[in-house]
Design goal:
heterodimer, A: 103 residues, alpha+beta, 2 domains, four-stranded antiparallel beta sheet, 3 helices, elongated, B: 396 residues, five-stranded mixed beta sheet, globular
């Protein structure tokens, strides 16, 4: 226990570093949403319209990648047992969906 | 042997409370944690809960685990009250066991329960007599910082205990910069988590503003009721009295934060957040436990009174009844639901659930109409009867 106690601060800092890295990766993906208010607004509208059309629950939608042309969306159906996950590209110009395998 | 018997007795009590809760329906927030739906709270606890998803009785198992954690926390309270007379110690343990928030929240799979327990550990760390032995605060501050980080990544509400964490570091006389980093970095990380999760951020904003527009007097009344409910009246009054008498500022500040949190975003499962502070108040000022036997008797009578006057919910939810039927269908396809529905529908379903749209009928094996379902009757579905909801199944 004494030996473990001597490592408590390194354990804390390593945990902080791991979480920071994971969050930084996630924030990097979403960075365009923070730097471009117009894109943020268009993204919100597009995701809501797509979710409405496809019958998706917003809690299952996550953004995989985003650029000026399209958003990559992951949709996860939360159910008892294994959750089906699908990946789509949604274009700002048309609003249409295509599965990620097409690309 | 005596301890083992007490432990088994208390565990029996915890299991009974979990079974009592299990007789009702799965709450929408419980479903979120059981299925690991990624909002509003960070992923630590719900991720761990979700590891048990494959087990057939996951819901009941988790209810028993949560009830066990809350009820068996009485051992920590007994340890915290070590300096008290045996009679006062027993009274304090009894006050915990028989308070309404333990009775009614111990079988719920809610993050508030875990946060309250984490708050209790923080109160213990704050009130521990650090002068004895070499295990002083400064020897475990790294663990305290890690525990603080874990608490924040269990649920945001842990921030309500921030004054206690600051006081722990303050008492340990650590270098201020180190303290600021140990306390501040976990807060910064949880803020970054919110920023990286738009759904959590939206949910967070929504919860923060949900009471806007309600008269202040109603909110104050709601908060006061929650505080009284938390400790079944007796512990509520004694705990607050203890905090004020001892002029224990960290506990008082946390108490004020919990009250403010109730005012801005009240939920029925938040009273338990008061509990660790009330226990801390009694320990900080043991003088409030005069005539302890009478106080314990009053607490038990109040608990029985509350229990007797609470509407018991012994029913299966619509979600469970309907999805039990739908899950038995051998066909593939999604389930469409029209109208507003909670996450408990997802928890009861083994098939993906989508919101009802007539254009999605071709993908559906069943349609549940909590609201109007235009077009379903002409699309090769037949309605099943005697199920309490309008449910349509695909014809073959």
């Amino acid at each position: 226990m004494e030996k473990l106690n001597s490592h408590q601060w390194p354990i804390f800092w390593i945990t902080v570093a791991v979480i920071t890295f994971a969050l930084a990766c996630r924030l990097w993906t979403l960075l365009p949403l923070y730097t471009d208010p117009a894109l943020r607004s268009r993204t919100q509208t597009l995701i809501q319209a797509t979710a409405k059309r496809e019958g998706w629950l917003l809690s299952g939608v996550s953004i995989g990648a985003i650029d000026a042309e399209k958003i990559q969306l992951h949709y996860r159906s939360y159910v008892r047992g294994e959750d089906p996950i699908s990946c789509y590209n949604v274009y700002f110009s048309t609003g249409l969906l295509s599965t990620c395998e097409d690309f | 042997m005596r301890r083992l018997l007490i432990l088994i007795g208390i565990e029996g009590y915890a299991v009974l409370l979990a079974l009592y809760r299990g007789l009702g329906a799965v709450h929408t927030d419980e479903a979120k944690y059981l299925l690991n739906i990624p909002y509003p709270h960070p992923p630590l606890a719900r991720g761990i809960i979700n590891l048990t998803e494959a087990l057939p009785y996951q819901e009941m198992l988790m209810r028993v685990v949560f009830a066990t954690l809350l009820v068996q926390a009485v051992w920590l309270i007994a340890r915290m009250a070590k300096g008290m007379s045996p009679e006062n110690r027993l009274t304090l343990c009894g006050l915990w066991i028989f308070c309404a928030s333990v009775l009614f929240q111990s079988g719920t799979v809610m993050m508030a329960v875990l946060t309250a327990l984490q708050g209790l550990v923080l109160v213990w760390l704050l009130l521990r007599n650090w002068e004895i032995g070499k295990l002083g605060n400064q020897y475990i501050l790294g663990w305290v910082a890690l525990f603080w980080l874990v608490s924040l990544f269990t649920a945001y509400q842990a921030v309500l205990y921030l004054p206690i964490v600051i006081a722990i570091f303050w008492k340990a006389k650590v270098h201020p910069i180190r303290s600021a980093l140990a306390i501040g970095i976990p807060l910064l990380l949880v803020t970054l988590y919110i920023a990286s999760n738009p759904l959590a951020a939206a949910s967070f904003m929504n919860a923060g503003g949900q009471n806007v527009g309600q008269p202040l007097i109603d909110l104050v009344q709601l908060t006061a009721t929650s505080w009284l409910w938390a400790g079944s009246g007796v512990l509520s009054v004694l705990g607050l009295l203890g905090i004020i008498r001892a002029k224990h500022w960290p506990l008082l500040l946390s108490f004020v934060l919990v009250c403010a949190f109730h005012v801005t975003s009240y939920r029925v499962y938040y009273p338990v957040l008061f509990l660790p502070l009330l226990i801390g108040g009694v320990i900080a000022s043991p003088g409030v436990l005069k005539k302890s036997a009478t106080l314990l008797a009053m607490q038990i009578v109040t608990a029985v009174f509350i229990f007797a006057h609470t509407q018991l919910e012994f029913y299966n939810s619509s979600a469970r009844i309907v999805m039990h039927q739908v899950n038995q269908l051998s066909s593939e396809g999604v389930v469409l639901i029209s109208g507003n529905f909670s996450h408990s529908w997802q928890y009861e379903s083994t098939s993906p659930i989508l919101r009802y749209r007539p254009s999605l009928l071709s993908k559906a094996k069943a349609v549940v109409c909590l609201d109007a379902c235009p077009g379903v009757s002409g699309y090769g579905f037949y309605q099943i009867e005697n199920i309490g909801q309008e449910v349509w199944i695909r014809k073959f």
